[in-house]
Amino acid sequence: MTALLELDGVCAGYGRSIVVRDLDLTVEAGEVVALLGPNGAGKTTTLRTAAGLQPALGGSVRLLGHAVDVRRPHRNARRGLAFVTEHRSLFPQLTVRENLRLAERSAGAWAELAGLFPMLDPLLGRKAGLLSGGEQQLLAIARALTGRPRLVLVDEMSLGLAPVIVADLAPLLRRAADERDV
């Protein structure tokens, strides 16, 4: 079976500053993997490189057996990659429902996911910009899953969130991995 994500000897950084050196990482289907470390350790750089949003300075990155396309990151999304950035990248003037619909690849994709995110149901008519930080993070993850990805990368999952919300997110991701083959 082909790994979902393979980083082999990856070096990454910005300009002359190398932040990640010789990283080997493999993520298989059904795994939930966390990158832990202090600020500046290269977690975001690693995820951006894995998503094809910045080039590796060395080594290789493969998504479902294909080289990650840095010139056309939308191809990585079509292959099954979803990336939730630390800034969540929501459309604040659109409602929760509209944000979810933008990510749907097929009609009714949100209806299949609604059971994983019952807390979003009463918020469907609210503008995304009016949600709390935890609600926005849930929406960002739900939106990523609506596109039926094979692999979801979540950067700074707990940034600015109350511990009780963080405690809810980890089991939710595990359940999504189990139920949706992510």
Describe the structure.
The chain is α+β, with helices and mostly antiparallel strands and about 180 residues long. The protein folds into two domains: about 1-80, P-loop containing nucleotide triphosphate hydrolases (Rossmann fold), CATH 3.40.50.300; about 80-180, Rossmann fold. About 30% of the residues lie in helices and about 20% in strands. The chain is built from six helices and six strands. It has helices at about 45-50, 75-80, 95-105, 110-115, 135-145, 165-180, and strands at about 5-15, 15-25, 60-65, 65, 80-85, 150-155. The strands form two sheets. It has a four-stranded antiparallel beta sheet with strand order 2-1-3-4, with helices on one face. A two-stranded parallel ribbon has the order 5-6. Helix 3 runs parallel beside helix 5 (about 135-145). The longest helix has 18 residues, at about 165-180. The chain is globular and about 45 Å long. The chain starts with a strand and ends with a helix.
Low-confidence stretches: none
Number of domains: 2
Q: What is the structural class?
A: alpha+beta
Order of helical and strand elements: EEHEEHEHHHEH
Number of strands: 6
| Average pLDDT reading | 90
Oligomeric state of the chains? Answer: single chain
- In spatial order, strands of the major sheet run 2-1-3-4
N/C terminus separation? 15 Å
Question: What gross morphology would you assign?
Answer: globular
| CATH level 4 superfamily of the largest domain | P-loop containing nucleotide triphosphate hydrolases
Strand content: 15-25%
Instruction: Tell me about the largest β-sheet.
Output: 4 strands, antiparallel
- Computed over alpha carbons, the radius of gyration is 16 Å
